[in-house]
Amino acid sequence: MTVFAKTALFATDCVLSIGAEPDNAWHLAISKLAPESFTTQIKECPRLAYLGLCEAGKVAGIRPGKYNPTKRSTRTVNMQSEHTIFSNLIPI
Questions:
Q1: If we measure between CA atoms, which residue out of 55, 54, 25, 30 comes closest to residue 42?
Q2: CA separation (Å) from 45 to 12, 17, 91, 92?
Q3: Structural domain tally of the chain?
């Protein structure tokens, strides 16, 4: 499992267990899972993919809503990345 998949799972746990907003939860999770790699922590594509899935209601337990605080679009998520990184988060 990649660091970004682990981050998505950790972030989702933070949202569900402590009520963190998905963007804040992502930043907390990536800083815990990749503390030695600032370049990994600032990558936007995995974060925006996660937030896009949250916004669309595709992450189990997270209601659809507006979770991207930046002006960058979460709608331009690469579908292959969505499937590869986050397939285990999509509710069946």
A1: 30
A2: 17, 25, 22, 24
A3: 1
